Amino acid sequence: MTSLAAPPFLSPAVANGAPTGCPDVELVFARGTFEPAGLGRFGEALASSLRSRLPGRTVGSYAVEYPASLDFGRAADGVADATRYMHRGAPPLALGAPYVVKSLDLCAPGDPICQPGGFDRAAHSSYALNGMVDRAADFVARRVDPESRSAENPRGSTAVNPR
């Protein structure tokens, strides 16, 4: 499963106050289970795809440091710790689905990580091959720059609707 949220995880750098040398866009990505430290194969593919869709902009990347294992006991401890602070940043009331246009939820059919009852372990490794990495890159690029290049908009015209 891949969940993307344009801000704050991936957003254009703020021009005023941003130190020189900062990228225009920063991709924060958590590698897949059992992958070695770094972005992992899907994170690298997404970063590469974003760079091709945002010519003229610099795209940096940050690899989230975490165990990337099935040791859920430790991971659950971290989640429990993080949830203690989540309420501080959440809006007090949200009616409807205010973040729908700012997020994209991709789950390959049968992926046991994101689909209840899914048993297709190969599906969990299929994101770079099934087009979802490119869909994610298109989604993000359109939010950063509505005139960006994408699979639907290879020349980067204003015909793309960012919503």
3D architecture notes:
The protein has 4 helices and 4 strands. With 163 residues, the chain is an alpha+beta fold. The protein has a domain at 2-69 and 99-144. Strand 2, helix 1 and strand 3 (59-63) form a beta-alpha-beta unit. Helix 1 packs across helix 4. Keywords: Disulfide bond, Hydrolase, Serine esterase. This is Cutinase family protein.
Condensed summary:
With 163 residues, the chain is α+β, with helices and mostly antiparallel strands. It has helices at residues 40-53, 72-89, 121-124, 132-144; strands at residues 2-5, 25-29, 59-63, 103-106.
List keywords for this structure.
163 residues, alpha+beta, two-stranded antiparallel ribbon, two-stranded parallel sheet
What are the SSEs and their pairings?
Elements: E1 2-5, E2 25-29, H1 40-53, E3 59-63, H2 72-89, E4 103-106, H3 121-124, H4 132-144
Parallel strand pairs: 2-3
Antiparallel strand pairs: 1-4
Helix pairs in contact: 1-4
* SS strand fraction: 5-15%
Q: Shape from CA axes?
A: globular
Q: What radius of gyration results from the CA coordinates?
A: 17 Å
Count of individual beta strands: 4
Distance between the termini: 21 Å
What class would the helix/strand composition place it in?
Answer: alpha+beta
**Count of helices?**
4
- Summarize the helix and strand pattern as letters: EEHEHEHH
| Mean pLDDT score | 77
Provide the helix percentage.
25-40%
Flag low-confidence runs. Answer: 5-9, 157-163
Strand order of the largest sheet: 1-4
GO molecular function, one term: carboxylic ester hydrolase activity
Family: Belongs to the cutinase family.
Keywords: Disulfide bond, Hydrolase, Serine esterase
InterPro entries: AB_hydrolase_fold (IPR029058), Cutinase/axe (IPR000675)
